[in-house]
Structure formats: C-alpha cells, structure tokens
Amino acid sequence: MDVRQAMQPDAPTLIDDLRTNELGKERDQPTNVARHSRHERGDVETGFSQASIIIEREFETATVHPGYLEPQAATAVMNEDGQVTVWCTTQAAFLIRADISEVLQIPLGKIRVIPTEIGGGFGGKSVAFIEPIAVLLSKKSGYRPVKITMRYDEVLTGTGPTSASHIWVKIGVVESGRITAAQAQLVYAAGAFPGSPIWGGMPVIFGPYKIDNLRIDGYDVVVNRPRAGALRAPGATNAAFAGETVIDELCKKLDMDPIEFRLLNGVREGDRRSDDVKLPRIGFHETLEAARQHPHYSNTIDGPNRGRGIASAFWGNYGGTSSAVASINNDGSVSLMEGSVDLSGTKTTVAMQLAETLGISVEDIHTRVADTDEVAYTEGSYGSRTTFATGWAVYKLGEKIITELIKRAAILWEVTPDKVSFSNRVFQLTDPPADEKTMTFKELAAQIDDTGSPVTASISVTPGGAGPSLATHIVDVEVDPETGKVDILRYTAVQDVGKAIHPGLVEGQIQGGVTQGIGWALYEGYYYDEDGNMHNANLLDYRMPTCLDVPMIDPVLVEVPNPGHPFGVRGVGEVPIVPPAAAIANAIHDAIGVRVRVLPMSPQRILEALWAETRQIL
Amino acid sequence: MPVIWIPAMLRDLTDGEDQVFVQASTIRQAIEEVEKNYPGLKERLLQGDQLRPNISVVMDGTVSQLKLRQPLAEKSEVHFLFAIHGG
User: Is any Cβ of chain A less than 8 angstroms from the Cβ of B3?
Assistant: First the structure.
C-alpha cells in the first residue's frame, strides 16, 4: 500500500487498535492514519479570495535511505558478573545504551557503550538494531566477544528509510507577488509503526515565507513497509520540494524574479513560523542578497535544454543536552572528553570553542569522544546540534576552569581571588596593579602542583536558543531530451551559518547535504513489488550520486550570528539537504519546459513528462 | 502576563482563540488556568498529571526540559508542539 491507498476508508487496517490521534483526542474508527496535526493562522478562504493567481499541485516522493556507506557494526562482551561493554558505530551512544537496557532489561549502570569512529550516520544510527543481539550472543557463547556487521542489503531493507510522501499544495498571490494564502496537506508513510516525520515537514513547507493566512495538515500513515527512520532534516526535503516548486510556478506566472519574490515575502526576525513560534534573528534576506550578487546568478546560462532553478529552505535546528569533562595538564595542554560522537569534524569545532574560552591554542587541546561511563548524558549527534550545544557545554566548562584558575593564581600571588582577573588571555593581579604579576594559561598550569590538587572540571548543559537556518540554492542543469538524463552543471548553496567556527568544515557539511539532496532528487528510491518486497537492495540498483555526478558545489557562507550562542553558532548540517530537489525540479522546467512532480526525477519520469507535454509517442 | 498559544487542533475548545493570557507561574498552573475558562483543554494536553507523549512544551522558542514545571516569566510565550526527533 502507498499512503493514499492506506488512507482510503475501505483500506485494510494494518494495526487493529490504531485510531487517529488529533492532539489528545482519538477518533473512533479503525484506520491507518495514526496522527493528524494542523498548523493554522488567519483565514485561508478569505486569503484565497483575495488572490489573483492561485496554483494547486500534487507531489509524490519516494522512500529513500540515509545512505551511509559504512554498515552498522557492533562488538559486545558480557562478563560473568553481568557487566556489558559494547563497541559500535553510532551517532548516539547514550540512546544505544538505553535501547539495550530496555530490550534486555539490564540496568543502565551495567552497560558501557563505546562509540567508534563512524562512517556516516545522517540520522540512521541513533537506534539499536544489532547491539542487543550481540550482547545476548556473548552471554550464550560463554561470555566471549561477539561481533556483528550488517550486510548492505540488510542495511537498506532493515534500518529505517525515511518516509515516502504525498503532498498537496495550494498558494495564492496578488499581482504584486505578495502571498495572500497558502494551504498544504502532507501525508507521510510511517511504515509498519506510527512515527513519520510530519513534525519536520509541516514547519518547512512554507517556512521561508511570512504568510498571514495558512493551513497545513499533516498525516502520519502506517503502511506495510519498513518502519520509517530519521534522515538529515527529517521530512523537510519532501515538503520543500512541493512548496518551492509551486513558488517557482507562481514566479513564472507573475513574470517575477524568484529572488525578488522571496525578498518580498521572506520571513524576518519577529515573524512567526507556521506553528506560531516567533523567529529570533535569522539571515534569510541576507542569503537572498548574497545569492543575487553571486556571479552564478548574474551569469546567463546558454545552450539548448539548459536551465536554472532557485529554491530556499528553512530548518528549525535543535539544542538538547551535552556534557564534557576537562583536566589541565602541567604543560598547559588540556585533555577534553566530550559526549558527542564526531560526524563532521566536531571534535575540532568543540575544541576550538574551548580554546577560545581559555585563551589558548586549539593545538593544546586533546579531544576524545567519551563513552557512556566517562561523561554524563549527552544526546546524539543529530538535529544540527553538536557544534551549537556541545560548544555551549565547553564554553561553560571553560568558564568554570577560568574561575578555578583565578583561585590558583591568587594562591601563587598570596592574595584573595577577587584581586585577580582574566582578560586578553592573561591572568593578572589587579589590586594592587602590577605589570609583572601576569601569567599566561601555560605559565599558570606549570605551577598548578604548588597550588593544591589538579584542576579538573565537568559540565552538563541543555541550552536554549538554537537559531534556525535558512538557505537559498542556485542550480544549473542540462537535460538530454533523448534519454531524460539530467546533468548538474553548476551548484551554488548560500546559507546563513551563524558564526562559522571552522569554515572548511561548514563548507563540507553544505557540500555533503547538497550531494544527498541531488541523490534524492534524481536517483534514489526504494522499488517494491506488489507484495512489498524490495528489489533494489544493493548499491548498484539503489543509485546514490558519486563524484562523477556532481560538480564542485560552491558553498557561500553568510554569517548572521545566532544571539542564542556565546560565539553566534547555529546548526548547519541539515538545511543543505532541503532545497536541492526543488531547485533541480525548477531548473529542469527552465531547461525543457516541463514540471516533474515526482521524486526521484529519473530519466524515465522526465521522458514521460516530456511526452505528456509534447504529446510525442515513440 | 504569560501567553499560551493554543494549537490549531485545540481551538475548537477556545472558541477559535489562538492565544490565551494567564496569570500563572508555571506551565502546569497555566494549563489549570486555561482549563477554568475552556474546559477540556487539560485532558487533551495531559495524560494523568504528565504531558502526553509526543508533545513538547516550547517556551520563548526553546523546548523546555522542565515541561510542566517550567517557570513562566511576565512575557513568556508558551507553545505545545509535536516532540521532534533528530536526523
């Protein structure tokens, strides 16, 4: 069943006692619709009555997988005293520990999860699949270590692809280009159990725009497919594909530059999201201006069957809980253990923030990702949260260390701590002021033993203030009308990244996200037969883009500091995957004059759309 | 006075009002206050004396870990949203 079939009143129900939940109210009838949610503001009927142009379209997106190349792997050993140690590739060691505890009914304190280096996660490695089995087999084998590695076909069929979806969109504008009303219905396939990411898609579909009259309905629908899992900005790419394609159609009808349209309608600080939450300082208009001034946008695109597409995107980002521990060594170096698995160079970005706080070089910080016995609870490396939240943690950790070091400097100078300050990377005696009474971090660390016990500190934080990210992408494509093949000629991704702690790593996140978005747009999709069997569970037939499929992706970092972080950091990892499908669909239309509203936009679908448009029959 | 934003799915209980101002010092008290004028809302948000699963309390734009115990300030804005899961 697909979601539309599953929603029919006469559809066979997958779960006998499932009833539609509408925020605390359950409907009476058996159904496959697990949840219905709504965002609503103003009066859409009035808004549409004011519109001079209304466009209404339907879209479908396929089931796709996060596509990390390293399969799940775990080694577990249970001791005879019941202590369990698990080494595994995961984004979320503490969640794996909780899963093992719940499944096997082992107390949390008896389980130690050691996260190994990871070959990609993208949301797919926050749930235990094989770890509890490895623990059980260790016990069964006489307390020996047991290693399990999934095959890639098992990864594809058994580890939670993200939702297929059916989306209906209607947007109305007046002649000036101002949006008067917008309405959408997002139907996401949850697989065999409720839990599709409609929560992710609903705020995104009209996220970049200030709209006074809107209604968005989201439906979480169970179908006889694998349980849906998270994938980078869960639910957002589907939504933006639909919303931004209709926006592009409106721009064409209005004969209006797509960036001008977005500047006219774009959200700013103080506007409200579709769920009514007020937006903090954001940099959407700054991304639009940067896109408009970029040479990519001002250069014309020449040649037959070539076109350009624009799409924008919103993603809310997330904070969550992070913890860290540090100790000061006599040589002035710092040993740092932090609880966030490093997916994208965050060991470096976190260390850089501690170094900045302590006034030392990042090379003097030795960072290790801690296991679950070494540091307090830390949420997974997901939700674009690590550089933001774990950065907050080490900033607060650094402040604690400085406070302690001021006490130690006071001991050395035989004064009370209130006579010592720390500024410009130096500890200084301030009362009475004495130029010679200064110490760098390193000089003080060398004398720590003369001041008492070693200096160490730990911290746990759950910071608010994760600022949303917005982005605007420009893409040029060439479509072969004979084969339907789409080549990406040029790609520019402009993004408000807050303060880029390590610009090179931010650029890598953007390039990776865009590449995944290109795969979702053009190639990727699960192929099922009528009995629900998957027929492309291998890396040849489940086609992901390679370096031969994508040009150099040009990331443009727009730095609008997030006021919710001491260094202005905002999450950067998820929003880059959101606009590509829509941008490419819009570019395909610009190239060959047809709209493809189904993902992936495979050669077959493009040819079908061309033939339908031109009525050509081979 | 703190303001409670009423989710669209619950506005049939508040005569269509999307915001309700309350005199309350915690989220729990705020829900009790809203319930006095708009009966039925509490049952939709709470299961027993706890927030229903999959509902997050967002105060001033940030998901609250304290949930119903979250203290409110004079100008706090409170939203009840779907709990999110990361990617």
Answer: no
Annotated catalytic, A356?
no
Rounded to the nearest 10°, the torsion over CA A243, A525, A89, A514 is -40
Q: What percent of chain B has pLDDT over 90?
A: 86
Residue A348: C-alpha distances to residues A352, A367, A387 (Å): 6, 8, 9
Global pTM? 0.96
SS (H, E, C) A51-84: CCEEEEEEEEECCECCCCCCCCEEEEEECCCCCE
Q: Which residues of A79-224 form beta strands (DSSP E)? A: 84-88, 111-115, 146-149, 165-173, 179-191, 214-222
Mean pLDDT of A51-72: 97
| Residue B14, token pair as written in the block | 């508040």
Min Cα separation A422/chain B (Å): 32
Taking CA–CA distances from B62, the nearest residue in chain A reads A464
Please choose, from the candidates A392, A391, A387, A374, the residue with its C-alpha nearest in 3D space to the C-alpha of residue A343: A387
Residue A618's pLDDT band, with cuts at 50, 70 and 90, is very low
Q: Which residue is closest to A343 within chain B, CA to CA?
A: B87
Is the Cβ pair A40, B84 closer than 8 Å?
A: no
The CA distance from B81 to the nearest CA of chain A, in Å, is 8
Compare CB distances from B58 to A22, A277, A465 and report the shortest one's residue. A277
B75 touches chain A (CB under 8 A): no
- Region B71-83: mean pLDDT is 93
CB pairs under 8 A between A and B: 91
For A24, which of B45, B79, B87 is closest by C-beta distance? B45
- What CA–CA distance (Å, rounded) separates B7 from B4? 9
Cβ A200 vs Cβ A166: under 8 Å: no
Backbone torsions φ then ψ of A108, nearest 5 degrees: -55, -40
Instruction: Tell me whether residues A319 and B62 touch, CB distance under 8 A.
Output: yes
The stretches of A179-228 forming alpha helices (DSSP H) are: 198-205
Other C-beta atoms closer than 10 Å to the C-beta of B32 total 13
> Among A86-95, A347-356, A386-395, A528-537, which is the least confidently predicted range?
A528-537
Check if A464 contacts B (Cβ < 8 Å): yes
Q: What is the CA radius of gyration of chain A?
A: 27
A355: left (phi over 0), alpha (psi -120 to 50) or beta: alpha
Please give the pLDDT value at position A531.
80
Residue labelled with tokens 């004079």: B74
Q: What is the ipTM of this complex?
A: 0.96
